[in-house]
Amino acid sequence: MTSAAHSYPDGSAAFPHRGLVGIAGLAPHEIMFLLDEAEQWVEFNRLPQKHNDRLAGLTIINAFFENSTRTLLSFEIAGKRHGADVVNMHVAQSSVKKGETLIDTATTLNAMHADAIVIRHGSSGAVQLIADKVDCPVLNAGDGQHEHPTQALLDALTIRSAKGAISGLTVTICGDILHSRVARSNILCLTSLGADVRVCAPPALMPAGIEAMQAKPFHDFDAALDGADVVMMLRLQLERMQGEYIPSSREYRHLFGLTQERLARAKPDALVMHPGPMNRGIEIDSDVADLAARSQITRQVEMGVAIRMACLDVLTRRARRVEGWA
Predict the structure, then answer these.
(1) 170 is catalytic
(2) Catalytic-labelled residue, pool 81, 82, 120, 146
(3) I want to staple 68 with a disulfide (CB 3.0 to 4.6 A). Which of 4, 23, 72, 94 is the partner?
(4) How many CA atoms does the CB half-sphere of 81 hold within 13 Å?
């Protein structure tokens, strides 16, 4: 059942937003509401029978303009476990490849009367543009270097599940901070919930003005790890890089790779996290990624389905009430 540990405004006021485009703009209690809503689905997904009819009769479109494995599959499973009709839009087979504009695509999707649209796009701001043109809730599954809100929520749920709370924890995020929408959403989410967030990267991969997001920047990974409760590693997003940002993968591993020796600088029970896909032997060694009791990487995947079930449920409640279904 949903946790009663937190109090919220009544009814739809607990999460009044029409969609979920980003963590920015969410109040701490709205984030906690989504985490608490997801708790029931964590347990539900461990049952032998994992199907309900909560979204029966609704149509969910997963419009992925960018390749994805984990996020697409997670949203598809989430929708189907709720009994929704889920349609995956593959860009390689879409009219976008024929030169259709994003606004025309949004107009086309809107004409299909979907009940929710999940969008992943390579351009920052593209999800908001589509959200402004359609009549149904839109969920951001990652847009450019902007945000990836459900990843931040599932990471927060993973941390809370393991640690009991988020407030007061020290979380170190290391890797390609500059190009990472995951880092941005996690900084916004975790600082909002009271965590002390450190970010570590080579100078060329550290965004200017990161302090304005209440994160403390480091270029020395050993210093950033000192006393950390959670260590979250990010991959180098080579596909978003133009020019040389690091001397070599070998040099990067030497300075910023998470090894057993480096992890010893964090707290003895520090969690190890990674949103995937991992580049084993570069940003994280295999013996750390697979570390029993410490690595939360597969738990993050599990929490992802629960968070996305919660978000689809919460964001379609208004439509279901209009139809008299809930």
Answers:
(1) no
(2) 120
(3) 72
(4) 23
